């Protein structure tokens, strides 16, 4: 599954990549190079990050589902046991 970014996010990421290269490598990076690097990151690194985020979300949801059993349980036929 390809990761699609909206235009504003993509532009901000491209600008950030250019700024990062200038600050850390003292090298100017044009928009084309930044776009190619961003594309590589999205294709190569993006799926690993996406999959980890999905796994984390699933774990949280499974915890919440497990809580339903204890939080949403009412003893049946308990009228006569009340004093």
Automatic annotation (TrEMBL):
Superkingdom of this protein's organism: Bacteria
InterPro entries recorded: DUF2164
Protein name, UniProt field: DUF2164 domain-containing protein
Gene source species: Massilia atriviolacea
């Amino acid at each position: 599954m390809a990761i699609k970014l909206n235009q504003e996010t993509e532009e901000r990421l491209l600008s950030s990549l250019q700024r990062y290269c200038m600050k850390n490598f003292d090298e100017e990076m044009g928009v084309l190079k930044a776009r190619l690097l961003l594309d590589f990151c999205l294709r190569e690194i993006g799926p690993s990050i996406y999959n980890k985020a999905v796994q984390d979300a699933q774990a949280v949801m499974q915890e919440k589902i497990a809580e339903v059993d204890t939080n949403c349980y009412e003893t049946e036929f308990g009228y006569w046991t009340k004093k």
